[in-house]
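Internal QA ticket QA-208
Title: Verify multi-chain structure generation after dependency bump
Assignee: T.L.

Test input:
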Amino acid sequence: MLIEHINQQLLDLEAAGLRRHRRVGMSPCSPRQRWQDAADLLVFCSNDYLGLANHPVLIDALAEGARLWGVGSGASHLVSGHSQAHAELEAMLARWLGPHIPGAQALLFCSGYMANVALMTALGDHQATILSDKLNHASLIDGALLARAKLQRYPHAQLDALERQLRACTSPVKLIVTDAVFSMDGDVADVPALLQLAEQYDAWLVIDDAHGLGVLGAHGHGSLEHFALCSERLIYMGTLGKAAGVSGAFVAAHPLIIQWLVQRARPYIYTTAMPPALAYVLRHALEIIEGAQGAQRRARLNELVAQLRTGLAALVLQHTGLSLPPSWTPIQPLIVGDNARALALATALQARGIRAPAIRPPTVPVGTARLRLTLSASHTAADVDQLLGALSNILNEEQS
Ligand SMILES: *Cc1c(COP(=O)(O)O)cnc(C)c1O
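Actual output:
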């Protein structure tokens, strides 16, 4: 019965063009990757925004980290898995966020998914209301559903709707929760205005900066650096598997919030600590991000974003049914609406040696299927031209 039930649902997904498949990569993360079922492809879908995932300095640092610390932590942080390598990384992250959250401490997690579930469940108790942007990442949504708090979702980026909810909210603890850079659209939340609302209505502002850390701010310290914000009311979550190129995540916040997470956050307590060798290599990744090399990579990334947007905007004018929402980040969505058309575009690109994923519901709202293009500082201008040329040819053939 279970198997028949599942099989029918899989067939339904297939029929709706929504069934997902994994591809087997045969070479490290880079703009040009080899796959088991295809030759080399030029890829526009990784979150390796600064090209650090396969950086030679970091490969050596990971090997050195393993020589110093072995390959595993052996236990959870509260048992015996917490090491000097973790503590030093947390101290560095606290220094990054300190100018924006006075006295901030940082706490490492194995993934951003776990950090968000931890934050929502440990802070969102029965006294709390979570006010969450409708387009927030799945991990924030799941965490909020698991929490004992009341959950209110506000329409994407509509701060007047959020303000009405805040005004009517009687909970003693109010948590406004938002992605800083929205993961499927690439638009940036109005964090200063959100913080002002938090201050005005005695709320806290939880920022998920998965796509901002490393990319935004003069030193790559993320969206709070970009907006030059400073407040004790900020609770910051950054991930270390995207621009930082490795794996893991952290929360930076008021010391008492961090202490509470250590006591109560189940995704922190009941899991094996990140291998210390990863914490070790991450410190080196952060050094690259905040130094001259990081600044250069961010500058190059911005040039590529401008080049891609100019080209996509021209395609949107020439062809019907396409739209390009405003985004100045390395996440660029070309919305086509229909699931089948998005899939056909992705398939045609693949036939031309380019991988750009069709993102369909339920990852994005129904009717907004899209090609989600992401750029990395290790792409070249010629790579972006190749993508634009291929898209132009495919769209012309679609019309004829
Ligand atoms: C990727 C992502 C996460 C999850 O981070 P992982 O470290 O990959 O688990 C959380 N929030 C947003 C907005 C993301 O894009």
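Spot checks passed. The chain has two domains: 25-54+292-399, 56-290.
Status: verified.
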